[in-house]
DNA sequence: TAGACGTGGGG
DNA sequence: TCCCCAAGTCT
């Protein structure tokens, strides 16, 4: 058989050097990439960066690392303090999980962020991506790091499509595995570089192909940059959803010094059934703690 | 395995 | 204005 598969069209080695060289010259100077960040700094940044843009994470990251420079410091706090300090980053369950992860690190790993992928994966709030990212960025290990940026880079450069599938597929994992450099240090470098390429150059909309170090080898460009034909990528409506109500409710709790009476929460949304459902949801998620007499507060705060 | 889960900036 | 999207995880 002489059939050419999509992954053998271009030798992996032909991609590594250009992308890593580009990264060496163009990488952003982000605080969690500096040596002093340590594994804990990398882990905190990864939690915050799950679905939240870098620019919004920056100031909150600095506050967190100043206040809680080690996992033990966060573990000693009430979970509600983590939720409060999370500010407006969104998806506040991440704050709760990061706090829980700090507690687990204290209990199971003597206060040090574990090195092994399986141990990282076992921590709350850490999935396939974050485990690989921490192991790779903090400890220089060799793991396929498949985030939304890398998936888009591979979709274009390797598969020749404008966008990756809705959910990560086995085919994508295979590509990531086959592209992974053999050497640990190069693999870690490649992971960071390919992510950065997706974040800065191979962006979702209006990619800067003129500035791309592998534009000449890009399967999507070679195919004439065909428009995306797959199923419509899910748009997330927000206005009027429980999520919006939850956000407003939690904002009130976050900004209050202490417990808040029901009446104050009632003002954020006029529809009582949805309002009650949202509040119940927050309570069952552990983001809000009901006290006696219809008073609420952030958990343990 | 879809769907839930916040928030705000840019085109 | 409206729509899309941003270093995912969990159920």
From TrEMBL:
Listed Pfam families: EndIII_4Fe-2S (PF10576), HHH (PF00633), HhH-GPD (PF00730)
Gene Ontology BP terms: base-excision repair; mismatch repair
Residues in HhH-GPD domain copies: 48-200
Catalytic activity of the protein: Hydrolyzes free adenine bases from 7,8-dihydro-8-oxoguanine:adenine mismatched double-stranded DNA, leaving an apurinic site
Classification via CDD domains: ENDO3c
MF GO annotations: 4 iron, 4 sulfur cluster binding; 8-oxo-7,8-dihydroguanine DNA N-glycosylase activity; adenine/guanine mispair binding; metal ion binding; oxidized purine DNA binding; purine-specific mismatch base pair DNA N-glycosylase activity
InterPro entries: DNA_glycosylase, Endonuclease-III-like_CS2, Endonuclease3_FeS-loop_motif, HhH-GPD_domain, HhH_base_excis_C, HhH_motif, MIG/MutY
Domain of life: Bacteria
Cofactor annotation: [4Fe-4S] cluster
Keywords on record: 4Fe-4S, DNA damage, DNA repair, Glycosidase, Hydrolase, Iron, Iron-sulfur, Metal-binding
Family: Belongs to the Nth/MutY family.
Protein name, entry field: Adenine DNA glycosylase
Species of provenance: Streptomyces coryli
């Amino acid at each position: 058989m002489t059939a050419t598969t999509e992954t053998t069209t271009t030798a992996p080695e032909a991609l590594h050097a250009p992308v890593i060289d580009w990264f060496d010259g163009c990488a952003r100077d982000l605080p969690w990439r500096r040596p002093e960040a340590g594994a804990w700094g990398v882990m905190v940044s990864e939690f915050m960066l799950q679905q939240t843009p870098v620019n919004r994470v920056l100031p909150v990251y600095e506050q967190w690392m100043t206040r809680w420079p080690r996992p033990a410091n966060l573990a000693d706090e009430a979970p509600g303090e983590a939720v409060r300090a999370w500010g407006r980053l969104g998806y506040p369950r991440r704050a709760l999980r990061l706090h829980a992860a700090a507690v687990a690190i204290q209990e199971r790993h003597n206060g040090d962020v574990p090195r092994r992928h399986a141990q990282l994966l076992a921590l709350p709030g850490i999935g396939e991506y974050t485990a690989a990212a921490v192991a790779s960025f903090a400890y220089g290990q060799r793991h396929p790091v498949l985030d939304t940026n890398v998936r888009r880079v591979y979709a274009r450069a390797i598969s020749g499509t404008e966008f990756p599938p809705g959910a990560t597929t086995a085919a994508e994992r295979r590509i990531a595995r086959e592209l992974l450099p053999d050497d640990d240090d190069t693999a870690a470098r490649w992971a960071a570089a390919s992510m950065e390429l997706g974040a800065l150059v191979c962006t979702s909309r209006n990619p800067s192909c003129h500035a791309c170090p592998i534009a000449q080898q890009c399967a999507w460009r070679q195919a004439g940059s065909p428009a995306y034909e797959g199923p419509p990528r899910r748009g997330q409506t927000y206005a009027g959803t429980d999520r919006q109500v939850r956000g407003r409710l939690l904002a009130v709790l976050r900004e209050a010094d202490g417990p808040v009476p029901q009446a104050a929460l009632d003002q954020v949304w006029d529809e009582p059934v949805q309002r009650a459902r949202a509040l119940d949801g927050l309570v069952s998620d552990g983001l809000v703690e009901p006290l006696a007499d219809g008073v609420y507060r952030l958990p343990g705060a």
